[in-house]
Amino acid sequence: MKTVKVDVAIIGAGTAGLTAYKAATKAGARTILIEQGPHGTTCARVGCMPSKLLIAAADAAQAARLAPEFGVLVDNVRINGEEVMRRVREERDRFVGFVLREVDDMPEDTKLDGKARFVSDTVLEVGDHTRVEARSVVIATGTRPHIPAQYEHLGDRAIINDEVFDWHELPESVLVVGAGVIGLELGQALSRLGVRTRVLQRSRHLGGLRDPAVLESATDAVGAELDVCLEAAILDVRRVGNEAEVRYQVPGQPEVTERFEYVLLATGRLPNLESLGLENTGAQLDDRGRPAFDADTLQLTHTPIFIAGDVNGMRPLLHEAADDGRIAGTNAAAYPDGVQPATRRAAMSIVFSDPQLAAVGLRFDELPDDVAIGEVDFSNQGRSRIMLKNQGKMRVYAERGSEVFLGAEMAGPAMEHIAHLLAWAAQQRLTVPQMLDMPFYHPVVEEGLRTALQGLARALRA
């Protein structure tokens, strides 16, 4: 076994790991990037990019269906599942190619293939071929889909989102378990592409929304199109031939037994930590084997180890993983004397469903007691009605006294753009009067934001 000595060792070559590598290298540290699997970030390979490709196809199909409501007659609309999935795969591979070229351009002596395991805080064994001795280490190993044990006997009838994007044609039917971001986005897209789809969710939550008024508006809007069963208890799952038979029940309703070609499990993700040998380090582990760390520096308590990206469970989003990588890489390079807390950007999350769901800044259940709320219902908002996208509701929050904007939750058209405007406002700690002094064009969806802010201003004065 050969020995390699470096300043910083990074485990994982996803978004967080690659960004950590750049940050540590920029700081002058001798850095090595260790990866045990195929290169290419989760986002590019099995996450945000291929899912948006599928959603784009689904939106095109839905636009064709709605065209007659505008007086535009579209005849003989049909969906070619093979062509839909061909474009998804080809464009997905193009995005992955960008990442692979980035890795290929890195010096060969800064890359190491194999499974890393801690021998101590600063020593790693990689496969059975290399011992890496480092001054500090960054864990950026990401997450994997959670597969509950009750579905394991379904074999290839139980799938995760990773597998959807390798399909060569669309199936006849899919049961989606989970109505979080992944389940809602893929479930609605498949339904719009002609797949018989049902979504089961064990709670009343949808797409991560926490504000009850916004959640209710989103549930009504999504439920009018997509077959979503909330508070559903899955009683039994078994394989029958090449189908999955599922028995479930919604409160107050009789039991239902149905068969589907696939069961798509969107039941959360687990951190890739269990085989790293963290028990051989000074990390403080909880009963699930997850390490304690400082959220501002990303340093594992009293160790030269840092943790970045989805694996730390803080904000599992690509832009947050990149920020984590920058923070962890910079601090790992500066260890032990130059570790510094980082200033985080305003929180922002978006679900690319229809209507789009988004949250910015403080969430509803994080608000202080002394808060004012304003809202807008998009059902009668001008531009939204013009586009036949008049669904959903937005609620905005501000602190009484200071009138500083705190955050928002929303369901409606073009919320991906509204969320960015509001995230910028939250990060700059703008007051509601300052936000209302900004220009609003006519007619645009942003006028709905102005309506909500005007209501918020009145609530602040009350």
Protein topology:
Layout: E1 2-11, H1 15-26, E2 31-35, H2 42-46, H3 48-66, H4 81-104, E3 111-113, E4 116-118, E5 123-126, E6 130-139, E7 143-145, E8 158-159, H5 161-164, E9 173-177, H6 181-192, E10 196-200, H7 212-223, E11 228-229, E12 233-240, E13 243-249, E14 256-260, E15 262-265, E16 269-271, E17 305-307, H8 318-334, E18 348-351, E19 356-361, E20 371-377, H9 382-386, E21 393-399, E22 405-412, H10 415-427, H11 432-436, H12 446-461
Parallel strand pairs: 1-2, 1-6, 2-3, 6-17, 8-15, 9-10, 9-15, 10-11
Antiparallel strand pairs: 4-5, 5-6, 7-16, 12-13, 13-14, 18-19, 19-22, 20-21, 21-22
Helix pairs in contact: 1-8, 3-4, 3-6
Question: Your description of this structure?
Answer:
- The chain is of the alpha/beta class.
- The chain has three domains: 185 residues, FAD/NAD(P)-binding domain, CATH 3.50.50; 119 residues, FAD/NAD(P)-binding domain (3-Layer(bba) Sandwich); 114 residues, Enolase-like, domain 1.
- Helix content is 31%, strand content 25%.
- Strands 1, 2, 3, 4, 5, 6 and 17 form a seven-stranded mixed beta sheet that branches. A five-stranded parallel beta sheet has the order 8-15-9-10-11.
- Strand 10, helix 7 and strand 11 form a beta-alpha-beta unit.
- Helix 3 packs across helix 6.
- The longest helix is centred in the first third of the chain and has 24 residues.
- The N and C termini lie far apart (72 Å).
- The mean pLDDT is 95.
